[in-house]
Sequence to fold (178 residues):
Amino acid sequence: MNRLVLLTFLAFSVLSSNAQKLIQNESRTMVTFKIKNFGSYVDCIFTKVKFEGSFDQNDLANSYINAIIDVSSVDTNNTSRNKSIAKEKYFHVAKYPNITLKSTKIEMVDTNLYNLIGDLTIKGTTKKVTIPIKISEKDNQINISSDFTINRLDYNVGKGSLILSKKVVAKVNYLASK
Fold:
């Protein structure tokens, strides 16, 4: 009987350690984007991002990565540009304070390469997206990174423009411990 209890405890410990929630390293997690304006790129960073997730390469059905980005934390290194981005024409921060990503599925593409499928909501518009992600693990650390492009007009961020690109290049680096 004692062996059965011990084996059950060990099995539960192994299963629960693989399915643990990830703990974000806030100082090393970043969401940046760049957009062409007047022919040159403007670099931007969101300074307040919160990820939550659980990842087990052997149990992708129960793995997920969600994010909430505080849009008011956008920093373009230009105070007047930051204020302009927050206005109704672009992000309308007063009405839509967050950008959210809610994953619905993670699929393996190749070694350490996955597709995160989920719902991306920007400025009240939600679209199903497939985001390529690279995942590397070492000891109890996990690094999830991605580079992808979205069309800002799909989310009603600004209007069509000859000087401002519709393509936004996003870069995510999420470091966490298990």
